[in-house]
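[scheduler] slot 2 assigned
[scheduler] job type: sequence-to-structure, two independent chains
[scheduler] chain ordering preserved from manifest
[runner] begin chain α
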Amino acid sequence: MEKKILLLFICALFAVGSLASEGVKAKTYNINLDTDPLHRWDDVIEELYNPDVETFIQSLIKQFVPSWLKLPLDFVAPLFLKRRGDLGQEIIGISKKIQEMNPKTSMTEGMAWLLNEIYVLNMGCTSIVGEHEDSHIIHGRNLDYNWPAELSKITFQASFQRGGKTVYHGTMFLSFVGIPTGMKPGAFSISYDERDKDNTLAGNVLSILIGRMLPSWEIRNTLETQTTWENAVEYLSKTSMVAPAYFIVGGTENNQGAVLTRKRTELVDKWLIDTSADRWFLLETNYDHWLPAPSGDDRRDPGNAHMNALGRKDYSTETLFSDVMVENPTRNKHTVYTTIMDSKNDVYETTLWP
């Protein structure tokens, strides 16, 4: 099923059509990590959840979840989520809050859990980390998905705070507790691109059952627990996960840019910025960087051309956005959002493309 959806996604990705000339800045919510995780997302849900969102949730469940699976999933989920610490408690709390607002909702604990898995299967992405001539690291990512109009309505920035101080940022979907795009001010930025190789639903479910975490959950763990770019790269190189992934990690100093190509349980490749070799930026989509990009989904070569045309001297948060991330096909009809990150200067800006 997921392969069929992915093929439809690739075929549609470069469909001819006009793109909105201007995006919309994502709203930012402060998420208080000092509060009970069961109620951590209440304010966001109260503002974003509505009948249209419920319709979208129902459509996802109908498309991805066989009717026979719903009952056993709803039985197992509470037991499983209680063993997942704060993130599991957050999913339980999200489900309970939505049920409080709409007793007829499809958002049971089992469905809330499964939606986090569904997001992993079908993300198309472009991530770029580059270094200006003054050693300034800037990181951008576009997230592409099959439902950009619907997802843009439930996409927002979160500033996670502890003791009244922001400790990290993330770009989030409603009900999604992992972080596919995030930044720790003064330390590092991370984006997660799907790696299609060996990314099967059966393999992912098996990985969940034996206790592994989603890649986006591991990013959130990294933002919570690691303090430097080097620590983040080491952690994301070694952790075991539900699905294969590319982790793109930017830092604050010279040559602190990496693309980590991951299997579920091991590192396949570590690709680093090396300004002494004139490799001042790295661009990752959804395919191994050492192999040719597929002709039906080549976002890599146009993106590289735009970066080389921009040049290292003129590389900035503004030009990365205006000269690269919004250019076709880096931005396309399926792009939900663009996030620009500068950890050194605590710049974190997400633009939605409704």
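[runner] end chain α
[runner] begin chain β
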Amino acid sequence: HTPAPSRTHAPLSPPRLASIMADAGGSHKRKYDRQIRIWGDHGQARLQSANVCMLGCGPVGSETLKNLVLGGIASFTVVDAELVTARDTGNNFLIEASMLGTSRAKGVSALAQELNESVVGRFVEEEPAHVVQNNPGFFRDFDLVIATQLADAVAAVLDDVCRTHGVPLILSTCVGFAGTVRLSLAEHTVLEAKPDNSVPDLRIARPWPELMAHAAAYDLSAMDDVERRHVPWVVLLLKHLHDWRLAQQPPAPETHVPTTGSEKRAFRDTLRAWGSSYVEVGHDLPDNFREALSNAYLAWTQPEVPSAAANVLSQASAVAMRAAASPVAGGADDLDV
């Protein structure tokens, strides 16, 4: 058999995370594009660093392994002592008829690797229960252990072992059309909400002094048309909000923003008129002014702590947050604040 790799189980370090995210560009980015759209580059980097142990490679284990390999995990180790039978050829996605009588762990591992050449596969031809009871240190270096069709007594021992080493455990059992999945880990806090309509916090409504000084340094009247079209739309909004405050009677304080419907419409109208003053009659607004108009709502949107973050931080457990917590994406085992 092939032994599992030796690697210290620890949160992904920022340098290692940055390296994986950098490597994820190019071909990797194209390969995993659809799933990156769901959990982002950060989540894909976590996935591509994961070392998974699969106990049992029957139908449930093989199907689970197939999905993980296609997703792009770093490596896997299959632990299974069974030989391939005729039944396996009919219910196991990663078994072929030519494998009859040979090691099931070896066959599943080989075909799983063919699904994704970037993933490293290993196998151990040994009963999962025997490994659990006689070699608990075997599980120390995995990021995740998945046990399928494991007896309750053995599962209880494995649970203690994984909790001792701080390794998340998933127990899965399937009988016919009925199945169960149980997750076991001491603590699992995830904060990486991806709302459908997020509002970027650019501090336009409440800019800090250095940001205002930066915006004030842009003198649009002294620029030519090319230079003016390259002024960031955020700067245009900041300058226009400042001018809008000065135009109020009496001049409004720096914390004042448009609040009523009429004020917001007037703000947009004057912003549009400002942009039109730099183009000939009948010509479209420059792209940066059009972007400023489409994001004008940020001029009166006050920055606030996202509700997902506020809910976590308001919990009593957040006060005694583990010192070992590190940035993660959805589905990982630490915290990103």
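[runner] end chain β
[qc] chain β: The beta strands are 51-55, 75-79, 120-124, 144-148, 169-175, 178-184.
[scheduler] slot 2 released
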